[in-house]
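fyi for ur records
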Amino acid sequence: MLQSLPSGAYDFWSWTFGLSQDVIAEVLKHGGMPAGGAIAAALDPQTARTLVPGDFDIFVENESAYLATKRTLENAGFSVSKLSIMSDTFVRTNGRTRTRNPWDFNRPEALKPVQVIRPPMFKRGQALDFFDFTVCSAELINDLEVVVHPSLAADRASKRLHIVNMQHPLSTLERIAKYVKKGCSIDIVEHAKVVLAILDLPPDIMATTKKILAEVENRPVSSETMYRLFALSKMSVSIPGSE
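which gave:
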C-alpha cells in the first residue's frame, strides 16, 4: 500500500538520527533503500513515541549502491562505529545540526545509529517481502512516498505483533523479545508460526525451544518466556534490520 510521507517525517529522522532530507535524497539517488521501523515510526507521532526505533536501516541491492551509500554518509559527517558480516553501523560525529523538534518528540541523549545492510538484499519496493512483522513493514521508495503493509498502522497502534514473513525463525524469536520489551504482545497463534518454522532446525536447538513453548500452552506469552526464547535464539546467527 502506497502512502505519502506526513509532515514532520524528515524532522523526526533529523532529530533522532541526524539524517537531513538532503542526505536521505542522496541515499535514494544512489540506490539506497531506507526501510523498517524508523520509516514506520515517522508515519505516526504516537507510535513514534511508543515504538521508538533503535536505528535507521538502509538496504541496498548491489555493491555499487552499498559503496555509494557509505560515501554519502561519510560525506555528511557520519563515521563507522561498528562493522559486522551483515552490516556497517554509522553514527554522526560532526555537523550535528538538527531541525525543529517534531511532535514534541523527546531528544535522545545521543543521535541513534544508521545501519547499512550489506548486499544483496532486495530491489526497491520489495522490502515488505523481507520483514517478519507488520509493525516494521515500511519502505521509503522516493522522497515523498512510502510503501507499507496494509495492517501497519492498526498493528502499531494496538502494539500487536503479526508475522508475515519468516526467513530466519530464530532471528524472529530474537526480534519478538525486543518488541515485547517495548510493550508489544503476540498471541499463541502467531507464536505457533515460529514454532513450526523451527521444526527444521538442528535437533538440540529445536528440543530446547519446544520445551520452553510447552510451558506456555494456551496462556498468553509472557515477557519472561520471550526473554528465555531470546537467550536461546543467541545460539543462531541473527540478521539485522528492522526495528
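The longest strand covers residues 78-83. thats all i got for now
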